[in-house]
Amino acid sequence: MAMVTERISLGPIVAAAPYRNPVVSARLVSDLDRLSNGRAVNGLGIGWNASEWEMGRNEFDMLGIPYPPTSARQDQLEEYITIMRGAWHAPPFTFEGQHYQITEASISPPVQQPEPPLLIAGGGKRTLGQAARFADMVNFGPGPAGGTAGPQLAAERLGVLREQCAAIGRNPDHILTSSFEHWLVVAPDQAALDRKIAKYFPDGISGFWGAGLVAKTVEGTIDYYQEFIDAGIEYFVFQSLDIFDRETLELVEFEVEPVLHARNAPQPRR
């Protein structure tokens, strides 16, 4: 992807920090930044248990690695970020923490300086506090993506983020706010949308993916995202579970985005 694109940012949304050694992750992000000529985003989260959402086994169990409690994984994340930054900026880097021990790590630095932007995912108070202290971007969405479904909850999360920023004297405007959708489906009209939904859910909308589905006409999609913009969200990430659904991508690009840009462009001074 880095070799065939020129402008888009590239990175995970997000990588579960406990899956990998932090120096390995720092090396991977640095390599991606070099391959893309400075377009990497360092997206980090603490992971979640798929079995709690009726999605099969916990991936941590499948990988044979520990799955500590949430508070411990949040502690790990802070050490993780410290190590990644140390490996980039202060080689050979040594760190002795509760969760990680690193001795004289040396890796090639990224292109972006001082480092690729850090995105922290999650909607809890402590996570948003970590975002206030460490992150350049914050991202949350429904279910395991931060328990933030809909613009009202997004506004509440942003209120917490502002409080956390105020507590440490940071300007919250320096953190890019973003939301995530598990599955976005867009169609030009209601009849076409109904056909898509019936194709994906022949027995009725249900299960994890049904709960996370945002299915709307073009007009409905514009109104939906406008509510998020009004709540304070600046950037949107969505995924499609149908690789052949180019229609959704094209409708968002050519019919949704231009309207939202025009509606929300700064007004010139008179």
What are the salient characteristics of this protein?
six-stranded parallel beta sheet, alpha/beta, 10 strands, two-stranded antiparallel sheet, single chain, 16% strand, 270 residues
Kindly describe this structure.
The protein is an alpha/beta fold and 270 residues long. The chain is built from nine helices and ten strands. The chain has helices at residues 22-35, 59-63, 70-89, 125-134, 151-168, 190-200, 207-211, 218-231, 246-264; strands spanning 15-16, 42-45, 93-96, 101-105, 118-121, 137-140, 176-181, 183-187, 213-217, 235-238. The protein has a six-stranded parallel sheet with strand order 1-2-5-6-7-10, covered by helices on one side. The protein has a two-stranded antiparallel ribbon with strand order 3-4. A two-stranded parallel sheet has the order 8-9. Helix 4 crosses helix 5 and helix 5 runs parallel beside helix 8 (218-231). It is globular and about 60 Å long. The mean pLDDT is 96.
